[in-house]
Amino acid sequence: MKVWKIFLKTLREMLRDKWILGLTLVFAPFFVFLYWIILSGGSTSYTVLVINRDAGVQQADGSMLSSGEHVIDAIRSITYADGSPLLKASIVTDLTEAERILKNRGAAAFILIPEDFSQALQQLESGDRSVTTQFTFGGDLSNPYYMVAVNLALMAVDDYVQEVTGQQPLIGYVEEPLGASAARSEFETYVPASLIFAVIMLIFLAAMSVAREIETGTLQRLQLTPISSLEILGGVTGALVLIGSLAIGLAFLVAVLCGFHSQGPLWVAIFVGAVSSLSVIGLGMIVASFTRTVSQAFIVANFPMAMMMFFSGVIYPLPKIVIFTVGERAIGLYDILPPTHAVVALNKVLTLGAGLEEVVYELSALVILSVLYFGIGVWLFKRFHLRSG
After folding, report:
1. Which domains, ranges and CATH numbers included, belong to the chain?
2. Is residue 309 predicted with pLDDT exceeding 70?
3. Distance (Å, rounded) from C-alpha 255 to C-alpha 346?
4. Cα gap 18→24, rounded to integer Å
């Protein structure tokens, strides 16, 4: 009963603070919508600058073989599974123009087709295996798009050469994508991690909600009643889980309206988000234990928020730093961050079509972290703010 009263009281206070509540609810939906706008609901196309110096060659029947033009067509023919372009070939006149565009990141890479390309292919086709020619390629190697673009473009060149000369590759490769990952647009691949933003933002609301009780003196008044720190934080946590689940639900709704299709059951994904929110709320409780005002809680909460944003795979994947292993399971340094497991679980469910039984490990890790952080939060809160309770 006491927990219920704290729950209702916390909800009323959150509703009064419309700015913080509004930002918490719309943060993840906004990022989902932003990704959809940036990617136009589809996938990134990588621009490759092509300097075509191929002079062409006359064939036996009198027609001209312009292999450089065919290579450009081959580059443009590389598409995603849904048919949208993966590479865009943009023709430039020389290296100077290419360098200017690349420095401004107007393209990912350049390829220079040599003058003797058609002639070399003609000789190879006739059986002369001694002939060689040389393609020049390059770009800004610090551009994360460079390696993707240049490798795909060179693959298109290689495929065209094999087709014209009749040469067969020494080794054949067959790609076997997991689940429906091959059919996903780039927008859809960003959705699972974007949903975690809704969970991460709860750390501010959690820390500030508890700090408000301290700053306004409500906590002192509560201490005059027979109520424990666990009951206080339990009521606050219930309200925060409700807000977090609502934020995740709104983010899902925006994603679906923008064309997202879940391969697995949505209720499992929402359940993962709700469990994730418990551990993040626990971190917020820990933050609140070291602060006495709402402004202090907001400032201190930025540190764990940044850790979760940049070191849990939400924004970009990081190499796993293994600390120890349990059976066949490697436990990494970043596994102490709840979003690390939430991102993996949501990818399994939303992209690979996994059910509840296939995310048991991630859910178990989130439950353990929730108990751990919540327990530490209660202990610290009682130690620093309820010494007489």
Report:
1. 2-39+185-385 (no CATH), 46-181 (3.40.190)
2. yes
3. 14
4. 10
